[in-house]
Amino acid sequence: MLYQTYQTLRYRTQHKVMKYVAMALPFPVPDLLQGPGSVRKLAGRIQADGLRHVLVVTDRVLMDLKLPQGFLKSLDKSGVEYTVFSDVQPNPTIENVEDGVRAYRDNKCDGIVAFGGGSPMDCAKVIGARISNWLLPVRWMKGNFKVLLPIPRIYAVPTTAGTGSETTVAAVITDAQTHEKFAINDLKLIPKVAVLDPELMVGLPPHITSTTGMDALTHAVEAYIGLNGTAFTDENAEKATRLIFENLEIAYKNGKDMTARNNMALASYYAGTAFTRAYIGYVHAIAHNLGGLYGVPHGLANAVILPHVLEFCRKEAEHKLAGLAVAGGIGKHWEPEEALAGRFIEKIKSMNKNMDIPPGIKELKEADIPLIAARALNEAHPDYPVPRIMTLEECEDLVARLLVPGNGKA
Questions:
Q1: 2-23+204-400 adopts what CATH topology?
Q2: pTM of the model
Q3: Which residue among 12, 251, 294, 348 is the one 20 to 30 A from 26 at the CA level?
Q4: Which sign, positive or negative, has the C-alpha torsion 126, 131, 132, 133?
Q5: How far from the centroid of its chain's Cα atoms is residue 271's Cα?
Q6: Where are the domains positioned within the chain?
Q7: pLDDT-based confidence at 6, cuts 50/70/90?
Q8: Which tens digits make up the pLDDT trace of 234-252?
């Protein structure tokens, strides 16, 4: 008990220091190209910036769907050469990054366009970090502020409304040998330009729409209920929550609804703006390790885990959860906070159910729970300013609730 008290005090001291540091840091804000058709303006911006040859980082699924073709043609018209690197895996690995670095150098590129979901954007950021910091191995840059030199200019074109990576300091990479996911966080990783074009998201399958949307909601919630929020991050988290509550299920049911798609793109951006300054929490820590160990899609893992973590810290986060319920339009400020907090958690559960998101993780094996819990807490402590500190036993118990009957045995 004494040791646990000491640990909690140590973590809280670091959280307070991190909050003041984050408030003082000069977070760059990407130039924003926003609205239907905005991706068609990007080639002109790249040309105006003086770039001659860009590396377009994407994945094979998007190439097969020919989604980047319009943008690539606009580069041709603008006289900007390009090399496409489309080998990014759903959970990008260190090897992915090194392959991208070789493509950049071999073709004498002078800038990077990240075109896709969170995986291409994360991979593109770390490719940029390795290009400029060629003596630093990817693993060495794990953690905070270890990207020593400025990276090549990055333009981010998200094709999902979820990660918010187009405005964040973070990139998440997987070590394929250990199956461990880890984050690299640095101001230098924030893209120079972000393109929010809902036309690129119209063809997303419903299950991608739902899980990436819940990823954005998780960003907003964890930033809001954590201890390092500010008026600025709270405002962005509240805007994101309202937009997601009002538009996600519409976009899930009708992917061609341009208004819903546009609002979800904005929600993802707002949520990213919030969490990159106020941090995340246990939902992400556990989800990262499910992704690293089993390849579980990040948004799906977040959606499944989120209500469990909120139940765990419900008492400590009650005031903030009540605030999000009001911001999300599902309650009034004069209602009891306990009722509002409960309604917010139930709203998340109902959204998951309405969008056919399963209640558990089918890949999870009971024998792996101690490893997942230990790695999750190692990631979360002491960096994530969570409302309630979780012990190893509590984390193992929470992860065990994600088991799917019949699929949990090794």
A1: Dehydroquinate synthase-like, alpha domain (1.20.1090)
A2: 0.94
A3: 12
A4: positive
A5: 9
A6: 2-23+204-400, 35-201
A7: confident
A8: 999 999 999 999 999 999 9
